[in-house]
Amino acid sequence: MAHLADFDIDVKYKAKVKKTERLTPADTEEVREILLEVKQPDFEVQVDQSFGVLIKGAGDFGNEFHHRFYSVADLPSKEGGNPQITFLVKRCSYVDEFNGELYHGIASNYLCDRKVGDEVTITGPFDLPFVVPEDKTSNLILIGLGTGIAPFRAFVKHIYKNVKDWKGKIRLFYGARSGLELLYLNDKDGDLTNYYDEATFEAFHALSPRPHMSDPIELDTAIENRAAEIIEMLSKSNTHIFVAGYEKISGMLDKAFSNILGSKEKWETRKAELVAGKKWAEIIY
Predict the structure, then answer these.
(1) pTM across the whole model
(2) DSSP letters along 150-194, please?
(3) Which of 69, 96, 127 lies at the terminal end of a domain, its last residue?
(4) Which of 172, 165, 169, 155 is nearest to 200 (CA)?
(5) Domain total for the chain?
(6) Which range of residues forms the domain containing residue 49?
(7) Are the C-beta atoms of 208 and 178 separated by less than 8 Å?
(8) Same domain, 19 and 149
(9) pLDDT digits over 3-61, tens only?
(10) H/E segment holding residue 118
(11) Helical segments of 188-282, H only
(12) What is the pLDDT at residue 65?
């Protein structure tokens, strides 16, 4: 986790909540899409950047501020000269394994509780590790869990709306507990399905077989089911892999790619090549 001191927070911006909408059903984990309007016109954030939310006096450990980072989930826009940014927030809480007490996530609960018209302090922008390659024949394997769909939604929309004429393959693998929690890929808010008509884009879903019993999301299975194509893509020097999601995603991917390439050693070698060539990037939280 990044430390507050590692980032410049001297420059702060005031933003107003223009819209807040719960995307997941009431009987599932709460994920909200929030639209902010930044009051200062000079604030600019791009699809390959994040921004911070700064909460004063929210820490229990003597911290003056709590700082949390969010990726943009849509193409940034301006209305009346003021920047507008969309992002996702999952309401978080956890039970302390030592004392058994329930603690609520500071930033997530603060943001999920904001109403239209409320003011939020933001910082940034800050660069993400995901950058659209200059080579339009590049292949992209995008892998996300939960709110990890956010940067990839903006990424895909940017490529097909602004970059255009993309020649490489874009393969999106996205995992959620149930079909109703497949953000931007369901019947209610499935705007990513608009890109199914693009010859270079395909998306694959992974769900939990028994979400109410907390069975793991079978993201590794979804990836392994495309083994032949992934092997072909990994044989190319211009293939990039971008990953965003919860910590558990790392183990899933190592297992899946090791099975696809035939051994753990082969995957470790290929992954090291991707990292060295700046073709592997991840945001794990």
Answers:
(1) 0.86
(2) HHHHHHHHHIIIII----S-EEEEEE-SSGGG-TTSSTTT-GGGG
(3) 127
(4) 169
(5) 2
(6) 4-127
(7) yes
(8) no
(9) 445 666 778 999 999 999 999 888 888 999 999 999 999 999 999 889 999 987 645 55
(10) none
(11) 219-224, 227-234, 249-261, 264-276
(12) 74
